[in-house]
Amino acid sequence: MESCVRSIASPFSMRRSDSGMVDKSFDIETSWIWLGSTDSHSVVYPTVSIPRPSAHPLEKLIASVSRLIAFQFIPTARASFFIGRNWHRGVERPFYRIPYRVRISLGWISLLGVLCGSVFGFHVDSKEVYAQRAKSILGVFVFQTGFWATSQNRRRIPWPTVIVGLILQQLIALFVFKTKAGFDIFHFIVTTVIDFFQSTASAQLFMLDQETVDKHWFIVNMTTSILLFLAVVEVLYYLGVMQWLIKKLAWFFYKIMDISGAEAIVATASPVVGQGDSACLVKPYMSSMTKSEIHLVFTSGYSTVSATFITIYTSLGVPAQNLITSSVMSIPASIAISKMRCPETEEPVTRGSLVIDRGQEDPAKANIFHALLKGATFGLFIVGQVIANTLVYLSLLAVANGLLTYIGRGFGIHQLTLQLILGYVFYPLPFLMGVPNQDILPVAQLLATKLVSNEIVAYQNLQNLMTSATPLSPRAYTITSYALCGFANLSSLSVQGVLLALAPNKSGVIVKVAFSALLCGYFSTLQTAAIAGMLI
Would you kindly state where each structural domain of the chain is located, as residue ranges? Predict the structure, then answer.
């Protein structure tokens, strides 16, 4: 087995460049994970292959074969047992023998080292960039201090979870921004997502003429993309693929951040299926969730955006890579911030187990086509909800701004709006994220728009600003695109209805923690933007 793998991998692990020199860099699509030896024989696992668009056809063939071997013919239980046993013996057991205070001190030192290394460890030509990056570090410190000061129980804050969450968020950012492998992986994901949603163009042409399709109307792109995505997701649920994928991803956060199984499932699923739907994955356990768990369910939904909405934002011109990276980075951030704000004081029912259960569905899906139809029908409901919410909140915002403008004229202020007022209130936030000084006020107004209206309106205003006579700087634009990527706005408080339906016996807790979780989700995205600001 070993010699066979080496003979296959060698042509691509060492290739000749145009100059004739041998490039020994490891390509992502042909790398292999050596898990060591078991009692009987060596175990070799190929990684999930990500072929580049320019990859040689033979590379793509080997990538496909490696995926087939990895997921069909090699028992993953053997590898999981081997990794778990050696991790426990070599890492966990010695680490937990260290006194708690010493472990926490080592954690804070490691976090400080990662943050400072991110800011000052990469050379830039301008000293001004270092100063802006330093402001981002200050922002993370201020945000965390604020949540510690307002914690509902400071003595019960799980500091290991908080520290690991912050370090993990920073490592994800470093992986994406500063490594070729990270860039290639996320570029592949983004390209795949865009290609998937662009396939709706043929359906649009069937319903509309070419001239209308070429106009890329927001409502047309949004409707077709949401219907397609939710129909496919429902089919994946029917086949069991979605449950398998979410459970595998949730296992990582469940193990490394010491949270309950239900929390890990919901937090991991939120960037995929969105807030509300992610809670449905643990429907039978909602009625027995603790206050801290419910708070995290809300926070994880508010701090991310679902894959359905990514196509909406990209149709407005927002880079898809920023959206996907922000949602992934916000998963550990939402866990850390939620556990600071509302620490666990009870014993969760799903502590120590990962279970996905959507409960009894009525009617049950008879086959794939029935699942496809059900997903598309549910998509119509989501489309209607998006259109209704957007129209209502835009109208209410216009009414409020009209009233403020009328009042402002009496005091000689002719452009008094809610965004302007909250822009000055939120003025420190862009500064703490590392936004250049000349862009602070317009970015603050965008943050205000996102909170009082929604992120769709904020992204639309951002794109309008970029085509105006005074656009944002590239740094400010990137940071802002990260900061706006989340469902944390006042209109999203309506998600309480979903949780109230799932757990009516927890209505008092749900209503009580909703606004607190909204603020936690809002600041999770700001912290994600600040961390992005450390690296650009």
Answer: 2-79, 105-365
Q: Nearest 5°: CA angle at 223, between 217 and 225?
A: 100
Quick one: how many helices (H) and strands (E) in the chain? Answer: 25, 4
Residue with tokens 């997701």: 233
- The three-class DSSP label of residue 450 is helix
Condensed to tens digits (0 to 9), the pLDDT of residues 279-335 reads: 877 877 888 899 999 999 999 999 998 877 887 888 788 998 899 899 999 999 999
Question: Using CA atoms, how far apart are residues 304 and 485, in angstroms rounded to an integer?
Answer: 6
What letter would DSSP give residue 72? I
Token readout for 316 is: 């407005």
The alpha carbon of residue 484 and the mean position of all alpha carbons in its chain are separated, in whole angstroms, by: 12
- Whole-angstrom Cα distance, residue 329 to residue 199? 28
* 312-327 confidence digits (pLDDT tens): 888 788 998 899 899 9
> How wide is the angle at C-alpha 425 spanned by C-alphas 529 and 482, nearest 5°?
15
How far apart, in whole angstroms, are the C-alpha atoms of residue 132 and residue 325?
21
* Sign of the alpha-carbon torsion through 441, 442, 444, 448: positive
- The model's pTM is 0.78
Return phi, psi of residue 483, to 5°: -65, -30
